[in-house]
Amino acid sequence: MDGLTADRLRLRRWRAEDGAVFHRLNSDPDVMHHFGFRRTRAESDAMREDLNRRLDAEGMSFLAVERLLDARVLGMVGLIRTHAPSPLAPEVEIGWRLLPEAWGQGYATEAARRCLRYGLDELGLTRIVSWCVVDNLASEAVMRRIGMVQAGFLDNPSVDAARHPHLVRHKYYVLEAGSPEALRQDG
């Protein structure tokens, strides 16, 4: 996946110099509104290193999204193999998280479409899933734009329901290889 390009973007492994932007991505209150936690700089650094390890070991990960025009990192998008306690484990999940200044410009959709093509064509995946808190309408819109179909609802067992009851319920979406929605990804 490292080095995938789309019209305006490059997806690449995380670098040490991305530490500050990756921490902001994991601690900004607007970005993390639909999550019950914020990561410290040390936690973000450990996550960044883990994402690179997963890229090396599994051939997929959440990657830095770099704008080709100016090499600015806008956030992360990618494919990742889910593990317990994720209620979607074991599946391959597509996901994204962008900085607020990159919202509403089609970057998440563009990068996610490129990841779908890679997952279906290069990795031979037969099913890709995604999920979001029920009121995360922006992420749900990306799921729909990239051709995913809602498959149901689920509760996230890792959310502290007493502190964040609004973050427990999620919608989940699926894209099956060979489906009309997946075939439309060719265009």
Please supply descriptive tags for the structure shown above.
single chain; 187 residues; alpha+beta; 5-stranded antiparallel β-sheet; 3-stranded antiparallel β-sheet; 5 helices; 8 strands
What does this protein look like?
- The chain has 187 residues and is of the alpha+beta class.
- The protein has helices spanning 19-27, 41-58, 107-122, 137-145, 180-183; strands spanning 4-5, 9-12, 62-67, 73-81, 92-98, 127-133, 149-155, 169-176.
- The strands form two sheets. A five-stranded antiparallel β-sheet has the order 1-2-3-4-5, sandwiched between helices.
- α1 (19-27) crosses α2 (41-58).
- The longest helix is centred in the first third of the chain and has 18 residues, at 41-58.
- The protein is globular.
- It starts with a strand and ends with a helix.
Give a nutshell description of this structure.
This protein is an alpha+beta fold. Helix content is 30%, strand content 27%.
Number of strands: 8
**Unreliable segments of 5+ consecutive residues:** none
Along the chain, the helix and strand elements come as EEHHEEEHEHEEH
The secondary structure category is alpha+beta
Percentage of residues in helical conformation: 25-40%
Count, helices: 5
Mean pLDDT: 92
Gyration radius (Cα, Å) is 16 Å
Strand order of the largest sheet: 1-2-3-4-5
Largest sheet: 5 strands, antiparallel
- What is the terminal separation in angstroms? 20 Å
Please give the structural blueprint.
Elements (H helix, E strand, L loop, with lengths): L3 E2 L3 E4 L6 H9 L13 H18 L3 E6 L5 E9 L10 E7 L8 H16 L4 E7 L3 H9 L3 E7 L13 E8 L3 H4 L4
Antiparallel strand pairs: 1-2, 2-3, 3-4, 4-5, 6-8, 7-8
Helix pairs in contact: 1-2
